[in-house]
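[09:14] KT: can someone run the structure on this one? pasting the chain below
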Amino acid sequence: SSPPSRRPIMLLALMLTSHWAFAPARPIALPRVSARPPVCHLGQCVIMCDGSEELDMSLLSKRISEIKSTRASLPILVLDAMLPRQSISISMDDDAGLKLVQDSLADYEGRLGVHGVDPSNGNVLPFGCEVKIVEHSGRNVRIVGTRRYLLAERPRLHEDTYYLCEVRWCERDEGCAGDVEAARSLLPLVHTWQELVRSGGHEREPGQLDAVLADLGELPSPSDPEGLSLWVAALINPLPALGVANEIRPAMLA
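[09:31] RB: done, structure tokens below
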């Protein structure tokens, strides 16, 4: 099998060149947030001095800083799998959703976590995407994906309204020479795919593809194979969906 770091790019290349890239997307029924994802443990972070029973405060402080740089607490929204750069407008129709937005703006700098679900069992997926609230008016908000993470513990109910959870940021994969070459060969396929969508009348409304491209911004360089593969995945599997590709967002988050 292929090395793990190359799988996202090879998956996208197959998606863009195969006939099933234009198969109808399957809808997913979303459950409540009460599903239980796997629990990840960081282990003990107490560091003892050599031969003594006292804490080495400098090492402990360094360890705490390291944990803070790799972990965060976020309010969780179960919506659909979402990728960095993707943007979507949603309406918080219930009071719990409105409270989540208000607390996110007041206490988390407008950040929250978005998750999809596993259609085979209804459980919340362990990988998610941090998003930023960029527009809000009453119950209506617009969010933009920023970075991937993994749940570090089981989500906990906050004030009987929404869920909070500790998350661990996913490390960037810089790739290797083979990844860069694979990313470079993906570029002409991206342009071909766009032409097929436009010429085949696959947009669900006029200008949909242009709007997706505007949200995603500049195409990353092949020298950043992870960034490029995530960008392409967000293009061919956007929110709202074009309906021309199978669901790949959850696999790209992992």
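[09:33] KT: thanks! The radius of gyration is 20 Å.
[09:34] RB: yep, looked fine to me
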